[in-house]
User: What shape does this take?
Amino acid sequence: APPEWDWRKKGAVTKVKDQGMCGSCWAFSVTGNVEGQWFLKEGTLLSLSEQELLDCDKMDKACLGGLPSSAYMAIKSLGGLETEDDYKYLGHMEACNFSEEKVKVYINDSVDLSQNEQKLAAWLAKKGPISVAINAFGMQFYRHGIARPLRPLCSPWFIDHAVLIVGYGNRSDIPFWAIKNSWGTDWGEEGYYYLHRGSGACGVNTMATSAVVN
Amino acid sequence: APRPVKPRAADSEAWELAPLELLEPARFALEMYNRGRAAGKRAMLGAVRGRVRRAGEGSLYSLEATLEETPCNDPTVCQLPVSKKTLLCSFEILDELGKHILLRRDCGPVDTKVTDNRNWTLNSFLPLLNKDSFPQDFSVKMTSVFKEFVTTYNRTYDSKEETQWRLTVFARNMVRAQKIQALDRGTAQYGVTKFSDLTEEEFHTIYLNPLLREKHSKMHPATSVNDP
Assistant: This one.
């Protein structure tokens, strides 16, 4: 992997969104990944609809939570994703209002990524932002800097938040993952969370996935 | 900014199980930890806190505990002072009809660098926080910080009671943030955020995603990248 990478600087990442009072992080993580994949294949950055997933992905549970793996399946079976503008985020489940004609983005497949963080970095640099799930310990009070909670407090077994890795690097020799969160720009570093890289911190390497656009 | 939900009964807050309720699962966790250890090498229970999720006939306890291990088990040959090794453990214990099953145990030594440099943090992390034990000046400072928080994040509460409750939650959270800060080995700073007036349970319920703990369906493994 290159020593550092940041997809934000390459225009592959949309602005930070806000899931509101709704456990829909899984939808934001997945749309963020698809936005990146589409950008890399087609050269266009589109902000995609999480609300479509909340309303129409019947395998997941909208604001009560969901799994990226089933969200990819839902996107495939629905036929794609509409844009944020066409299917606006409401932060609660409504009847499915999906329209095939408004689909702007499709995916062909989805893949599980390695648990090796070096391989994840290499994959990210070449293929785009990665959907991951982490233990959100401490994030309620996180303001800035690179988080590295004690492992027993941030166990990889207690994964409860899905986010999007958009880059990595080192700050004063401390390796980090740059993570796009979905709690608005008034949280963390302009909406971003920086987590220690290389130690499996908070289970960041346990559920890394991506959509595939051919 | 999202508006916090109504106040909950104090006893429903996460990590606030009554000590008596914790006793049995904590003893069981300690017993499991000490299983197979010689009498002189057994750990002792330090502080413990926990939460429980009940479903049907079962209760799932999540405990955080400190265990003290004395490296020297023969006081006649030990050099004084004998330093204790403190472990920070998290346990998950299922109680089904009174039968305990240890589902998970995750223990690690408390970072000595952290504890040496910031003794107060370890001490403050360990005991259960007693909301009545805040000193006077702490309350005054907290009220001022809370007022700033309310202004910054444009919070409105329905009643004086709710405001008072949120202040209590906020003050507890500030202490929690300090503990998290003390136990972080990176460069992260923790403190007031827009979620500072939510209890841990509210925050988990509203913003997090428990389904991620479920087993997800396996997809094709990605081909590795050879030449970036």
Notes: Confidence is low (pLDDT under 50) at residues 1-14, 75-82, 112-133 of chain B. The CA atoms of residues 53 and 93 of chain B lie 11 Å apart. The longest helix of chain B spans residues 160-182.
